[in-house]
Design brief:
Shape: globular
Structural class: alpha+beta
Number of helices: 5
Order of helices and strands: EEEHHHEHH
Strand content: 5-15%
Number of strands: 4
Distance between the termini: 45 Å
Largest sheet: 4 strands, antiparallel
Strand order of the largest sheet: 1-4-2-3
Length: about 160
Amino acid sequence: MTDNDFSSWFPWNSRNKIMGMKNPGIYVLAISGKDISNQPFSWRDEIVYIGMTNSSAGLKGRLQQFDNTINGKTGHGGADRVRFKYEDYEELSNRLFVSIMPIPCDVKSNHPDDLLKMGDVAKLEYVCFAKYAGKFGHLPQFNDKKNSPKFSLTKGRQRK
């Protein structure tokens, strides 16, 4: 895996324009005060979350779950942690960027090649965690479950 296996950075609201969104794969999210659109992927301190999907809905479906959750619904644990800190969806979505590494395969197949690729996706998420932790000494903020509370378990309860 190299940095070139990832797409360039896309603004959150343009994520569905990224090639390969129908595939399973890895996604990396960054929150930045500057526009990093179209910049090549790199391991940067603005990265706040690394995730993966092997779902038949692909990266598009998983990122939609993330979007739904940061916009007040439920369905994505990491996004629930992001929402704890960034309750204003519009403000967050204007600062949120995504890069993906799609892994083309048929997630409904039991063909050995497809099964191996789906296993690669799961492994690659941990490879990404290791690369990030090796560079910055810790996991991305919202992958750190110990130090990153969920909105639904804290603030969400207070509003009932």
